[in-house]
Amino acid sequence: MTWERRHDPEEYVSIIAEVFYDPVRRKNGVRPATGQSFAQSMKIECSREIRDYPVGTKVRLRVVETTKEDSRPFLYSSYKWAHELV
After folding, report:
1. Helix (H) or strand (E) holding 48
2. Residue 70: phi, psi to the nearest 5?
3. Rounded to the nearest 5 degrees, what angle is found at the Cα of 23, between the Cα atoms of 70 and 53?
4. Scanning 5, 13, 61, 62, which has its CA 20 to 30 A from the CA of 83?
5. Among candidates 5, 2, 4, 9, which has minimal Cα distance to 63?
6. 48 closest CA partner among 68, 27, 69
7. pTM for the complete prediction?
8. Are 32 and 21 a contacting pair, CB within 8 Å?
9. What is the spatial distance between Cα 84 and Cα 38, in angstroms, rounded to a whole number?
């Protein structure tokens, strides 16, 4: 798989996301919380630290919409970046 392209840091937006149990993957995932500017059906690729929080935990983090080859759009936040518990 290849990345679509590199994103300018100014393209990233701050959103509130939540940890949820993803029955398809049988493990926790992260998605935008209700009322954010992205659909709650979008998954967020982010640090394992966030995915390890209990289901229902909300965090503020910076994301950008992106795709990989042969994949549907998703949100990306670098695992190196800080996040804030909400």
Report:
1. helix 48-51
2. 60, 35
3. 100
4. 5
5. 9
6. 27
7. 0.85
8. no
9. 19
- Rounded Cα distance between 54 and 44, Å, is 16
| Gap between the Cα atoms of 41 and 20, Å rounded | 11
pLDDT digits (tens, 9 = 90+) for 12-71: 999 999 999 999 999 999 999 999 999 999 999 999 999 999 999 999 999 999 988 777
CA 78 to chain centre: 9
Q: Rounded to an integer, what distance in angstroms lies between the CA atom of residue 29 and that of residue 10? A: 25
Distance CA 54, CA 58 (A): 9
Q: What is the pLDDT of residue 56?
A: 98
